[in-house]
Amino acid sequence: MNRRVFLQQSGLLGGGLLMFDEVAAKLGSQRLDKPLSIGMIGCGDRGKGVLSVIKSLPNLYAIHSYCDVLDFRLTETKKVLGDIKAKEYKDYRAMLDDKSLDAVYIAVPLNQHFKIAKDAILAGKHVYVEKTMTFTIEDAKALVQLADQHPKQTVQVGYQYRYSPLYFKVKEMISSGYLGKVSQIDCRWDRNGSWRRPVPSPDLERKINWRMYKEYSGGLAAELLSHQIDFINWAFDTHPNEIMGAGGIDIYNDGRETFDNIQVTFRYKKAGMIGNFGATCGNARDGYLFKIKGTKGMVSLLTDTGLYYPERETRKELETVDGVSGATKLVFNTDGGTPILKEPTKDGTWYALQEFYKSVQNNTIPSSNVHRGASAAICVAMANKAIYNEHIEYWKSSYDV
């Protein structure tokens, strides 16, 4: 690998897809057409957090309304919005009836994603639905079919981290061969805590702690690991052929149904890769860990920063100063890594909301579209079947969406 070509094409020292950040910043300060009238369906922590980001983009979005079935969440949301005069709903269907509403952001329990997204599309609204896109494989396929029948409406899925310049850069590095032949992917998203939310009344337990119950939730695989699962599908344009898994309620025997400790292995036969995806609620040391290992080098990613670790021979080539490139010398840290981008990226939701607006305005397909969302949702459903049923799950041709 020629060092000059590597630096110019990969842009590790600040070029390349850093332009994405600059374009997004320019978009955030200019009005392309008019602000998009948007409503929030689901006002839990995620919904309120996204509304805070939407508030910071007044040239792109006008917050039209918000909806939740719990009164105290409506009260909390009103405080988050402050002086913004938005309509309040307890029934999302009434919100969808409003002709002045352009789009909805769906941040509700996973088992409700498909129904609400379907109703929103049929009501003529653009849709941003949180990950995981759907609860079941059947719903994933049905939503793809419905969205394809309404091509003028944008459907985007909430894999916000991979909208950052960092993850676009890593995808570029993979496709350009700077990692060589990738064979192993190691992913974790760990925490040390019960994942349980306080409940003001016992009758609200399942509505508030829905992530703990199989009726509503895909557990750790859906809520955390699906981010990394989706990135691998997207970056390598692939999907696993078979999935093996194990898990249990090993830490918090508190009445929950979804496992608090899981490990799944994906075999990507066509790509010649093995993906290891694990999460526990019993130790926070690794936190978010994402390593992609190839014959020429490895990337190690957090949500907003990343390092590239060249293999020994690759590093020798990169350290050869040829006098022609005039490029800044690569600086390696004590464990042999060099930053992929100069600075940490912004919160991924900021980039994702930029993309959603552009896709609606230009009638273009977002990167995290309904087809990509379906592929990840199918993988998550397969992973949970493998974990809970203790057998290997195999990809079927009918899953190709």
Automatic annotation (TrEMBL):
Domain GFO/IDH/MocA-like oxidoreductase positions: 169-299
Superkingdom, natural source: Bacteria
Protein name per Swiss-Prot or TrEMBL: Gfo/Idh/MocA family oxidoreductase
Residues covered by the Gfo/Idh/MocA-like oxidoreductase N-terminal domain: 37-159
One Pfam assignment: GFO_IDH_MocA
Entry-linked InterPro entries: Gfo/Idh/MocA-like_OxRdtase_N, Gfo/Idh/MocA_oxidrdct_glycsds, GFO_IDH_MocA-like_dom, NAD(P)-bd_dom_sf
Taxonomic path: Bacteria, Pseudomonadati, Bacteroidota, Sphingobacteriia, Sphingobacteriales
